[in-house]
Design a protein that fits this description.
single chain, mainly alpha, 4 helices, flat, transmembrane, membrane, DUF6249
């Protein structure tokens, strides 16, 4: 499987918005500095939410399980490699987010 085209497309559509965002943020901060305002107005309060960490942890576990199951399907069934991997990654990633939603809802009810 040649993924050069996929990587090129993702790079183009990922890097261009990133550069635009960074340039816009830099100009915005420079304007605040020139006006003598405090940059902390833009930053807001940085808080490390345990629920946010839990969400990303559960999602990454789900994606890893999806890759493993996709590999098993690719090796032992007649499915195409792309179909088995992508379907399982999306399936288990979605299931992981549903599990996170259930956990977050239980924690919210306990408060």
């Amino acid at each position: 499987m040649d993924i050069t085209g996929v990587v090129a497309i993702i790079s183009v559509f990922g890097v261009i918005p990133l550069v635009v965002f960074l340039v816009h943020r830099h100009r915005e901060r420079q304007a605040l500095i020139e006006k003598g305002m405090d940059i902390s107005l833009l930053q807001g309060e940085k808080k490390c939410s345990t629920l946010e960490s839990l969400k990303y942890g559960v999602l990454l576990i789900g994606l890893a399980i999806g890759i493993l199951v996709g590999n098993i399907l690719d090796a032992y069934t007649g499915l195409n490699e792309e179909v088995s991997y992508f379907s399982m990654i999306f399936l288990f990633g979605g299931l992981a987010l549903l599990v996170f939603y259930g956990i977050a809802k239980k924690q919210e009810e306990q408060k």
